[in-house]
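Homework help board

Subject: predicted structure for assignment chain

Our instructor gave us this sequence and asked us to write out the predicted structure in token form, then describe one feature. I got the tokens but I'm not sure how to describe them. Can anyone check?
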Amino acid sequence: MAKNSMNILVSVLLLLTITGVAGADLPTTLYSYTQGFESTDPVAFWTSNGSYTINFKGLTNEQIYSGLQSFKLDVTFGTGATYVYFMILLPQRIPAYRNTASQNDLHFTGHVFLGTETTCRAGLGFNYAIFPLDFWTGCSPTTYYCTTKGEWETVDENVVDWWKGSVDRFMPLNFTGVTGDNVGGYINRIGLFLFGSSGQRAVVYLDGINLTGYIPSQADYEGDTTTNKWPSAVERINAKIADWQTQLQTIDAFQ
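My token output:
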């Protein structure tokens, strides 16, 4: 029995030596972005599929979650518009990195208040870019509001969970054999997403924006993705291509 236990221990040690410690975190540092809208308006127009009118955009003291001011946006949808997006562009691309201790993951909190004039949907969310497929991006709100019933609503989100869920849903539709486990992702902007139709209006207040978590360096993050995540996707893609080629050869043989 002791001999068998020793053999198992040796095997485990050899496996760890070859593959490394499973689940070990990369070196990380604390990242924090906060926006209280006390002195500047960091919100910019992002995109829309139609016309719109900005009735007001800027800082105000009409509704306040904390401090002395908040951000207010008053928009009316015009011809052809079903969405109008605004954004806070982050100072750097933030890795959507999964720490072993989930409480260290990138975490977002923000506060939303909708004026009674609002007749459309509004939500806070993010835009991300995929590594190593940098040309592929995605965005969406984490949740929608049609009303906040005269109160501030708190958006509280594990950004890594949100990103992973989004990528797992949409990546297989665009790249056969690729899931969120095979790629890295960068959060590059916070989005204010408005959805409506011509004549509808959004009156939105934002306050107390915070994005915090432990993240690795870009070099470490991309190195880990390239070495430990992406190769398995490449193997599945190549296997699928080989299968398609075999099927085509079989079809050709009967023609």
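Reply (TA_rk): Your tokens look well-formed. For the description, you could write something like this. Confidence is low (pLDDT under 50) at residues 1-22. That's the kind of observation they're looking for.
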